[in-house]
Records
---
Amino acid sequence: MKDNEYKCPICNGSDLTLRHEASYVYSYKIDSDKPGLLNSDVFLSYQYDKRENTNSRNYIECNQCGTQFPCNFLNRIIGEDD
Ligand SMILES: [Zn+2]
């Protein structure tokens, strides 16, 4: 892993993690067998009928001091190859 040029503005550490945090609601139709039209023998949570993303956010977290950075800091990293 090569060193990155991004530093935490609080502690100046470079051990940073990009996080994508999301909330989903999974729906399973109740039918004659297991809940979910795709489930018949066992209930498998990934065999859902509908998934709604109710909330999501991206941020960067410093692994050294725990500070979280907002999206504008993130966009500078993601837009690097543009
Ligand atoms: Zn830090």
Note: The helical segments are 71-78.
---
Amino acid sequence: MHCISLIFISCFLNIALGESVDEDNVRPENFEERLSRLEELVDIQSQTITDLREDNTNLRETCLNSSLVMESHHISKRYSNEQVAFYAYLSQGKCFSEHETFIFNTELLDSANSYSTHVGVFITPVTGVYAFSFNVVSAWLEHTQAELMVNGHVKARVFADSDTVKDVHTASNTVVLALQINDHVYVRRGSNAFCTVVSLETAQWTYFAGWRVF
Ligand SMILES: [Ca+2]
């Protein structure tokens, strides 16, 4: 009986110890193995994210370049780089301060995309001889003056005077200038003027136009 008990106890201890040894040996190994696999997975996913970000940046650049090429192709299909002409006018009258740039906000033509209806400046896309025409309209019993500017220098003036008549008067000018690429041309209010500049859709427009002669 003692023998049987001892054998049973011995078997039990062996089994218990065996399981205990297995747990001590196997679980940490599994844990480390799993941790290692997870670390590998994180590395792979991290690299994948980096690759995808790079792909995304390249695709954005490709799309941007494609749209620019399409845009320039669209413009060049209609006009060559040498064919430059624009025409814009004020959609309504406005009170301008002295030397304030007229921003001709309604554009009917801009073949080389070189006149900005946001800042009111024409930037010459190519060197050449250019003609400009501009017009200004004075208010009732007032006078006004406009100046054509190139890189901050006055190149022409117009003066519309309806001081003594209950009417609006218009004055215009046309000039021809030799310009370099990237010259800035614009129209501003002169010093000898009331603030109001008239522009009426149904009557007369205050406008600015230019084109390359050769
Ligand atoms: Ca424009």
Note: Residues 107, 110, 113, 115-117 surround calcium ion (CB under 6 Å).
